[in-house]
Structure formats: C-alpha cells, structure tokens
C-alpha cells in the first residue's frame, strides 16, 4: 500500500487501567501503542488486500502476489471478506490482473455467500482468452474445468480459491 503522510492527530481519553491494558496488548503484539490501536480500529484484511493489489500492480511476475491474495481470501471469514473487498482497488491493474482478481473474488464470494462488490462486477471480461498453460494439449481440459467466474472472464485456469496447482 502506498505510504500516506501522517499529518493529522487524534487524541482520546482513557483511564489508567485502560492505558495499561492497551500498552500491554501493544507490547505483546510488538507494536507501538498508536499502531496497535489503529490496527484494531482499521481493518487489517482491508489493508492487506490493498497491499497485495499494490504488489500486483508493480511486479513483472505476479504469481507470488496472486498466491498471497489466494491465501488471504481463503483465510477470511464471510464478514472479514465483505469488509476487505468492499473498496475498489487503489492500485492500477492491467486488464488481465483486474479480471483475475475479480474472478478470485467472485469465486470466494460464491463460496461464502457474500455479495460480489460492484467494482468487481464492473470489470469488463477480456476480449481474448488467456490460458493457464501454453500447452495446446491442455486447452480442452482448461476450457471445461475452469471455474465459472474465470470462464466468464475469458481466463482458463486449472485451480482456484481453496486449491493450488
């Protein structure tokens, strides 16, 4: 995620026992008190989702970032998922990566019975098919076995959320 300048301040009043409890919890988490409080208030899954999309936007080889996104999405509960994917990606993604991310989100949303966010539904499908393998002998398999969300987006892969090749 892009670093944002911290140019504003928020002050809250707490009792001494509350302050001690926050200090101890922050110490256990290995964070400064402000970082700890912010991590509890701001959604960590949302921040991680946006951070992975930022990595996707700058890496020449997206396989590791896509694997990290897979791991994040597959580990989230339905409510965490809803929150994490609610905002449109901040990072500019290629048409291929936008479709891949949208297909992953559609797949995990279907599995968790969570509504697909409007921004993911609005990603236009690819005009040309992309196959997960250059081997022509695998194309029929990929055409028939790709998950529906991927097929709708002209992406033909062998694995999706919950599995890996």
Protein architecture, described:
The chain has 165 residues and is an all-alpha fold. It has two domains: 11-42; 45-156. 56% of the residues lie in helices and 2% in strands. It has helices spanning 16-29, 33-41, 44-58, 63-75, 78-84, 95-112, 118-121, 139-145, 148-152, and strands at 130-131, 155-156. It has a two-stranded parallel sheet with strand order 1-2. Helix 1 (16-29) packs across helix 2, helix 3 runs antiparallel to helix 4 and helix 4 runs parallel beside helix 6 (95-112). The longest helix is centred in the middle third of the chain and has 18 residues, at 95-112. The radius of gyration is 19 Å and the shape is elongated. The model has no long low-confidence stretch (mean pLDDT 88).
Brief account:
The chain contains nine helices and two strands, in the order αααααααβααβ. The chain is an all-alpha fold and 165 residues long.
**Low-pLDDT sequence parts:** none
Shape: elongated
Q: Any idea how many domains? A: 2
Portion of residues in beta strands equals under 5%
The strand line-up of the biggest sheet is 1-2
Enumerate how many helices there are, as a single number: 9
Series of H and E elements: HHHHHHHEHHE
* Number of distinct beta strands: 2
Instruction: Please state the CA-atom Rg, rounded to the nearest Å.
Output: 19 Å
The main pleated sheet reads as: 2 strands, parallel
Mean pLDDT, to the nearest integer, reads 88
Cα-to-Cα separation, first versus last residue = 28 Å
In which range does the helix fraction lie? Answer: 55-70%
Structural class: mainly alpha
């Amino acid at each position: 995620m892009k670093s944002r300048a911290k140019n504003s301040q928020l002050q809250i009043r707490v009792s001494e026992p509350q302050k001690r409890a926050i200090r101890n919890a922050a110490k256990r988490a290995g964070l400064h008190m402000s970082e700890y409080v912010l991590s509890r208030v701001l959604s960590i899954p949302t921040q991680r989702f946006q951070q992975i999309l930022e990595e996707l936007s700058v890496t020449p080889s997206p396989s590791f970032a896509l694997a990290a996104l897979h791991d994040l999405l597959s580990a989230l509960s339905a409510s965490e998922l809803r929150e994490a994917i609610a905002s449109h990606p901040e990072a500019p993604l290629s048409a291929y990566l936008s479709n891949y991310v949208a297909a992953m989100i559609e797949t995990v949303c279907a599995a968790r019975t969570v509504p697909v966010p409007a921004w993911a539904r609005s990603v236009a499908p690819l005009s040309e098919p992309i196959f997960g393998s250059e081997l022509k002998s695998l194309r029929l398999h990929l055409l028939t076995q790709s998950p529906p969300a991927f097929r709708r987006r002209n992406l033909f892969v062998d694995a999706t959320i919950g599995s890996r090749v």
